Amino acid sequence: MTRPSGRSPDQLRELRITRQYTIHAEGSVLVEFGNTKVLCTASVEEKVPGFMKGKGEGWVTAEYGMLPRATHTRGDREAARGKQSGRTQEIQRLIGRSLRAVTNLKALGERQITLDCDVLQADGGTRCASITGACVALHDAVNSLVAAGKLKVSPLQDFVAAVSVGIVDGQPVLDLDYDEDSSCDTDMNVVITGSGGIVEIQGTAEGTPFTRAELDALVDLASKGIAEIVAAQKSALAA
Amino acid sequence: MTRPSGRSPDQLRELRITRQYTIHAEGSVLVEFGNTKVLCTASVEEKVPGFMKGKGEGWVTAEYGMLPRATHTRGDREAARGKQSGRTQEIQRLIGRSLRAVTNLKALGERQITLDCDVLQADGGTRCASITGACVALHDAVNSLVAAGKLKVSPLQDFVAAVSVGIVDGQPVLDLDYDEDSSCDTDMNVVITGSGGIVEIQGTAEGTPFTRAELDALVDLASKGIAEIVAAQKSALAA
Amino acid sequence: MTRPSGRSPDQLRELRITRQYTIHAEGSVLVEFGNTKVLCTASVEEKVPGFMKGKGEGWVTAEYGMLPRATHTRGDREAARGKQSGRTQEIQRLIGRSLRAVTNLKALGERQITLDCDVLQADGGTRCASITGACVALHDAVNSLVAAGKLKVSPLQDFVAAVSVGIVDGQPVLDLDYDEDSSCDTDMNVVITGSGGIVEIQGTAEGTPFTRAELDALVDLASKGIAEIVAAQKSALAA
Amino acid sequence: MTRPSGRSPDQLRELRITRQYTIHAEGSVLVEFGNTKVLCTASVEEKVPGFMKGKGEGWVTAEYGMLPRATHTRGDREAARGKQSGRTQEIQRLIGRSLRAVTNLKALGERQITLDCDVLQADGGTRCASITGACVALHDAVNSLVAAGKLKVSPLQDFVAAVSVGIVDGQPVLDLDYDEDSSCDTDMNVVITGSGGIVEIQGTAEGTPFTRAELDALVDLASKGIAEIVAAQKSALAA
Amino acid sequence: MTRPSGRSPDQLRELRITRQYTIHAEGSVLVEFGNTKVLCTASVEEKVPGFMKGKGEGWVTAEYGMLPRATHTRGDREAARGKQSGRTQEIQRLIGRSLRAVTNLKALGERQITLDCDVLQADGGTRCASITGACVALHDAVNSLVAAGKLKVSPLQDFVAAVSVGIVDGQPVLDLDYDEDSSCDTDMNVVITGSGGIVEIQGTAEGTPFTRAELDALVDLASKGIAEIVAAQKSALAA
Amino acid sequence: MTRPSGRSPDQLRELRITRQYTIHAEGSVLVEFGNTKVLCTASVEEKVPGFMKGKGEGWVTAEYGMLPRATHTRGDREAARGKQSGRTQEIQRLIGRSLRAVTNLKALGERQITLDCDVLQADGGTRCASITGACVALHDAVNSLVAAGKLKVSPLQDFVAAVSVGIVDGQPVLDLDYDEDSSCDTDMNVVITGSGGIVEIQGTAEGTPFTRAELDALVDLASKGIAEIVAAQKSALAA
Predict the structure, then answer these.
(1) If 0-12 CB within 10 Å is exposed, 13-18 middle and 19+ buried, where does residue D134 land?
(2) How much is the ipTM here?
(3) How would you classify the pairing of strands F112-121 and D36-45?
(4) Residue A96 marked as a ligand binder
(5) Where in the numbering of this chain does the Exoribonuclease phosphorolytic domain appear (chains A, B, C, D, E, F) (predicted)?
(6) Is there a binding annotation on residue A211?
(7) In terms of CB atoms within 10 Å, which of D88, D129, F17, F158 comes out highest?
């Protein structure tokens, strides 16, 4: 089997992580998985949402959006339609949960960090790219709090990244682009920490259900990919 | 370890499936997993939504709701608030995908079946109960089309059911009730067909990430539980 | 004239009132007028809405909903459409007013009781069934406050119930089912207390206006019916 | 008892009906019941709403609004809040039903007439004033269709008007102004045709329920008042 | 060139300003530019919006609406559609800014004045009429505060009025009515104070762009017209 | 006077126009006025909106958005809030009108081009940058239609660009950045074509009204600036 992109089954797309992409946010990262480009900003606010008040803890949350022409054909602008789609809400809940899994909310103190993940260009895997870029932006925002003396140590306990895997024509492949994503039988998004703990696993059979053996192969592939992605996150932050 | 309910780790709650619970719908099932009670109705309409028009195929979709006082404390009525929560949309998309995985949409013809899953009483696992009950209601609705001569054979290729599994105090357990659900570290919903194919797997670490070994144990437990649930579905339909 | 159901003109449908139908609410009643089935729950909250704050009084309010397939053909889910219809709002305002008419709000203290009336199955007369069932659920909720020592005496001054009456083919009839409701000329909903006081009267001529004599006959019929319904409420509470 | 306005119990406020109040609408009436002023316009459109298509009949409907400062203190603008209140919807449904009760929809042909009733100044009884003024605007609109040769005869079978009655300090009174309306025990709106047929009766006990004898007295009072109002409508149309 | 109305190019329509048009508002003005009729009310509230709290200043804001049948053909009711159009929001922002330009917000104290401008009948120039009438209503409201001893001196520093100008068939004309407005190439709304200072200028080329010379001619024309309008405002307030 | 940026009063910020910034859209331009960065995409659809159907003409429209953290402090996401602000709607209407002013809609044929202007980073002048960038994206989209043989000649009759001017500390200055914009007395946005025709002029006095002489100076300044901007647009398209 040859992938449309010429990649081998276990090969990631070219991954680029650009920090300080915009100037106002406490963390601002452009993450690119091949042609998928997502701008992830981290905004610190010295207050927490209503349901967290008085607990002495912080909160990390996310919002997700896609520019109308990030895709092949123009999609509706959610602000104009007057509501976010179910898909958008599902994705932003996933991003938030993934980042909270590596954050010590008590150590963050009574402040909120909002990760805005806006897709400038889409070619599959936007939610995984969002988690990956948002993690780096979150590190930058938290480090700025430490540098400013507002925090003694970083409340971030680990890195976290995500990748999609799927079965295309019977073959498990890593990091699906749009062409593969639209034609695959099974699509799985996996979120794993730097130390290898699984945070989220979301697999869906689009047509034929998948077997236990396929599940195992997909999780193996995702683990391998995420190890490479976390290395890239660390290297970007060290730059 | 003792579970609050006294169940063994791999024991389902008492499962009851009552067909023809209401009189108007083509399929109407009250499904009970212990104290969780969901009314699942299947409604047949001789038309398809806009995006399916002219394809010569049918569509199966789902809507989910919870009565305001299905829970310990009263929740907002979504109709009064003017929008469905992200959680509601996530659940109804999951139910729809699960049922379409066992339906031959071409064989259904240009008609839509809507599964309404309304939670009358909640005690954990409402989305899994919904999928389980909706599958039976869908069978009833499709059988009524066959009986009426509108379909020659049933477009349903299999059964499908769901169950939640989780790690509570380090122990993998099957079919979490509300008490366990609120205290567990890892929560996973698994959707599997009658022939054992995996349709959906959605696992989330609420606190500590989970290991590969724990993932394996949870999937084993879910597979065992779903085999029992599918047996109950078949027995209910045979009654 | 024969009624489609074979009932005599002044005969109610079979009335069933089941208390403690669900487990979480302070009052939970399934009320059935023939095939019309409404689940009425009463939820007590130790706070009042903004416009009642600081008055030293309580509040009783209601919300009404209908499951999408409670009816012959599936109706839109109001939560999905994003707003409640004018009909829904009219009904829930009527239920709230009717219950407040028998409640001493001062004696209730600064707390709110919300009556949720959700129609599981509809066959005409759902608003009247809602008032009737909600009254019993309200009694249960208030009695639980008395039992818990939060109230010394019940702030409920009376019972209240409702019934529809109408003119079908020139004949005044009691407690219309769906078939009669859709074909009748004049439709009237009457809300009366246990001691016979009129709380609400809402009569509408669908086609030909009605005469003063017909108005009198309809109110007579409603009074007779409500006396029987209140007896059933009292008997259910005594059980 | 003396009424705040000095009127006798069965005396209407000064009633003024001004036709052709604005220039664009097919019917345009300013109706004044004392200080209550409502602008009622009738707009003819050569199409019917979706649910009436293909029936060979017309439709008459109404919309109701209140300018934010029509009242003592400024109310929210419903367009700014983004939704119409339950009260607004209840009123516009009532106006529509009342006018359809005197219209032969078949004779109207496949066209819609919309009555917009906008309260410029409120002092109680705005829904009754709306029905009264809208009836005259509807006559003007229909007469313009007859004059234009689009209709051979008027599809209006009668006049229709409305008035409020209530029990204030134990005394039944006619045509309540705002002061009486806010303090009365029982409030009733009655809609009656020119030939004396009852179209709508909506009575509510705000505090103590009302007796059968009080109901009778109120309907008598309303009948008397409406006879005078219909005379004023006819006289305005003859001018 | 002859204008459809027979006016000379620099001639305003007949301008009428009627104060105390309704009874409840602190300022209530019906302003008429020919057939354009707008009811402008000023409502005083002893509180400011959230973003102005604690600044020791007041706020002046505006809302704008058009009755559905103010126009040749019936328009949607914004309250029924559930949102205000972009045009409505643009206009009410313009009215608010124009009035704040002549108000000393500090001298107003911590209170808000809301100007509601509701178009009863439209024939072009409704936003200019709104500004013109709202200025008079604002003067009345502020004078009532002074009369009541709540303010020592009026915080209004000047008058402000608005007029539309445009190029019709190559000719600059003043105060366009609907016919001219729909056919003109360039349309400009100008807001000028009593002392001649420009507050707002909004010019739009509908077809061919306009030249600098045309811009100059239009501003000249507007200045002349506004001087006459301000004289009328002063004369109305002196009456 | 020294400007905060060190620019001379009539000096533009550094202007960069990058074409083909993203890959899917028919035109995709990143426009930068100093630190203000707007992504402008042009999307061609072979259909027109309802109100343009059957006229044999095309339509050009625009939508505008700002990423939540494009600004110094995070703003609400309009999609999450469920509606676009009045400011957003005002801006997108302005962009659309400006582009239609240089487009021959008849020559475009029955197709729609939507310009999405999304602000990635804001430092004042985002609406002017949007118009400037959108014009280039529109040229690219139209040229692609010509290249594909769908249009014989370009329906674009000219270039169009916009710039803000204002009076800061009594001095007219060109192309305000955020610091100047927040402190200026008068703010004006001017839209001018390549051949010098004025398309839009929108001036607002934030505090003191401005004089006729100031208006003249501002228009002079804007004309000079736009000539430079149009030169940059042409040079970008020639590249």
Answers:
(1) buried
(2) 0.95
(3) unpaired
(4) no
(5) 11-141, 158-225
(6) no
(7) D129
The answer to whether B104 faces chain A, any CB pair under 8 Å, is: no
d(CA E200, CA E94): 8
Cα dihedral F132, F136, F138, F144, rounded to 10, equals 180
Encode chain B (239 residues) as per-residue pLDDT tens digits.
689 899 999 999 999 999 999 999 999 999 999 999 999 999 999 999 999 999 999 999 999 999 999 999 999 999 999 889 999 999 999 999 999 999 999 999 999 999 999 999 999 999 999 999 999 999 999 999 999 999 999 999 999 999 999 999 889 999 999 999 988 889 999 999 999 999 999 999 977 899 999 999 999 999 999 999 999 999 999 98
> Cα distance from F165 to chain A (closest Cα, Å)?
24
Domain extents for chain E?
15-238
Identify from C76, C97, C201 which residue to disrupt to test chain D contact, counting D C-beta atoms within 10 A and taking the largest count.
C201
Q: Is B127 assigned a ligand-binding role in the annotation?
A: yes
Question: With an 8 Å Cβ cutoff, is F67 touching chain A?
Answer: yes
Tell if the CB–CB gap between A22 and F120 is shorter than 8 Å. yes
Contacts of E82 in chain D (CB under 8 A): 82-83
Residue of A nearest to F119 (CA): A67
Using CA atoms, how far residue D67 sits from C176, D77, D86, D177, E126, in Å, is 40, 7, 17, 18, 17
Cβ-Cβ contacts under 8 Å, E223 against chain F: 212
C137 in B contact zone (CB under 8 Å): no
The pLDDT mean for chain D works out to 96
Secondary element (H or E) of residue C88: helix C86-100
Alpha carbon E95 to chain centroid distance?
6
| pLDDT by residue, tens only, chain D of 239 residues | 689 899 999 999 999 999 999 999 999 999 999 999 999 999 999 999 999 999 999 999 999 999 999 999 999 999 999 889 999 999 999 999 999 999 999 999 999 999 999 999 999 999 999 999 999 999 999 999 999 999 999 999 999 999 999 999 889 999 999 999 988 889 999 999 999 999 999 999 977 899 999 999 999 999 999 999 999 999 999 98
Please give, rounded to a whole number of angstroms, the shortest distance from the CA of E23 to a CA of chain F. Answer: 31
Closest partner residue to F83 among A37, A65, A82, by Cβ?
A82
Listed residue (A103, A164, A139) closest to A17, CA to CA? A139
Predicted confidence (pLDDT) per residue in E43-95, tens digit: 999 999 999 999 999 999 999 999 999 999 999 999 999 889 999 999 999 99
- Which CATH number is C15-238 given? 3.30.230.70
Q: For residue A19, give both structure tokens.
A: 């920090």
Residue numbers of chain C with a pLDDT score lower than 70: 1
State pLDDT tens for residues A154-200.
999 999 999 999 999 889 999 999 999 988 889 999 999 999 999 99
Structure tokens at A26: 């406490």
Could you identify the residue written with the tokens 């086609």?
Answer: C207
* Contacting residues of F for A65, CB less than 8 Å apart: 67, 77, 79
CB of E49 within 8 Å of a chain D CB? The answer is: no
The tokens for C202 are 């809402």
Residue C83 in tokens: 């707003």
Q: Which residues pair with C113 in a beta bridge?
A: C44, C60
Looking at the predicted structure, is the pLDDT value of residue E182 above 90? Answer: no
Residue B153: burial class (beta carbons within 10 Å; 0-12, 13-18, 19+): exposed
Q: Which two tokens stand for residue C58?
A: 């309580």
Residue F200: which of E97, E203, E212 has the nearest Cβ?
Answer: E203
| Chain E partners within 8 Å of D121 (Cβ) | 22-24
Of D45, D68, D72, Cβ closest to residue E74? D45
Distance from CA of C23 to the nearest CA of D (A): 31
In this structure, how many other beta carbons lie within 10 angstroms of the beta carbon of residue A201? 23
Structure-token pair, residue D138: 């509807």
